[in-house]
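ok new one. same drill as before - structure tokens go in, u give me an amino acid for every spot. 298 of them this time. try not to just spam alanines like last time pls lmao
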């Protein structure tokens, strides 16, 4: 059999970002509204600093106003909550992202709860989780939204497809399952306590791997021709002693069986930031009470 088509997340993300940029320009011209995104980073976690820098750059490139706030690693919960409340009240800010993880002394759930749901561009607030689950207009978490875009790019209509979501986190697994249900898939959620993961995986026409375990999904877990979306980003040390990034799927084996598959890096990763910009545009339009402009370049 031919090898799987490699799904180019970087190319799709570039198209989405360019489209956001054109629609932001239209929103400014028609309504005088410049979308604003605030990112709050607490502490000095190196991976978080890399993400925050990348987000800031992409934000500016799309014509969105970028606000960056930093608090020291020793900041108290009260300091973080005060900052979130100030951003809630700032009319220039339409989207708020508090970079996770937070230091141990700060309760993440309390911080997410304090974000105005209308500005919750991460889609982590319980109001947005509930709206997504009940089919109402929600802010949708960026990573699963990006996965859905890649699936639609690859397969078109998803109606009736058998989908397996491996992983049940609030950030990826659960919202992913909701989005697939909304797209009329038959959805199974599997996790570390699932009795026979491999057997469940083999039944899936769409397989989303979001477990955070390097190369856990083997080639013989995949149904021939299935579409595989790999959300994992794991840094491992290879046999040569060099560090490299791998997904949750054993890519070399999987691509011999799958019909289409996302690589790591260059698959889901670039889509997350693109969807953050899309969510910021959506949030700004909703807050201004106007429709999201149609893309003249689409
Ligand atoms: N840390 C790693 N990924 C994310 C994300 O998508 N959103 C936030 N807020 N923090 C993260």
């Amino acid at each position: 059999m031919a090898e799987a088509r490699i799904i180019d997340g970087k190319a799709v993300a570039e198209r989405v970002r360019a489209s956001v940029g054109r629609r932001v320009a239209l929103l400014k011209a028609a309504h005088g509204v410049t979308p604003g995104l605030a990112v709050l980073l607490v502490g000095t976690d190196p991976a978080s600093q890399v993400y925050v820098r990348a987000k800031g750059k992409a934000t500016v490139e799309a014509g969105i106003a970028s606000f960056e706030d930093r608090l020291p690693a020793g900041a108290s919960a009260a300091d973080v909550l005060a900052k979130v409340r100030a951003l809630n009240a700032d009319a220039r800010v339409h989207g708020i992202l508090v970079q996770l993880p937070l230091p141990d002394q700060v309760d993440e759930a309390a911080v997410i709860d304090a974000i105005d749901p209308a500005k919750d561009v991460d889609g982590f607030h319980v109001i947005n989780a509930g709206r997504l689950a009940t089919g109402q207009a929600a802010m949708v978490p960026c990573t699963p939204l990006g996965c859905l875009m890649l699936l639609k790019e690859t397969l078109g209509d998803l109606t009736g497809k058998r989908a397996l979501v491996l992983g049940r986190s609030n950030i990826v697994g659960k919202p992913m399952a909701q989005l697939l249900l909304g797209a009329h898939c038959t959805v199974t959620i599997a996790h570390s306590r699932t009795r026979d993961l491999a057997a469940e995986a083999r039944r899936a026409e769409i397989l989303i791997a979001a477990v955070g375990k390097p190369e856990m999904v083997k080639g013989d877990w995949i149904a021939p021709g299935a579409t595989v979306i790999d959300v994992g980003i794991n840094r491992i040390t290879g046999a040569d002693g060099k560090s490299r990034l791998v997904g949750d799927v054993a890519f070399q084996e999987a691509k011999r069986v799958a019909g289409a598959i996302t690589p790591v890096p260059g698959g889901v990763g670039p889509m997350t930031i693109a969807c953050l910009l899309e969510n910021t545009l959506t949030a700004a339009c909703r807050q201004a009470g106007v429709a999201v402009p149609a893309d003249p370049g689409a």
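The chain has two domains: 29-123, 142-270. and btw DSSP finds ten helices and eleven strands in the chain.
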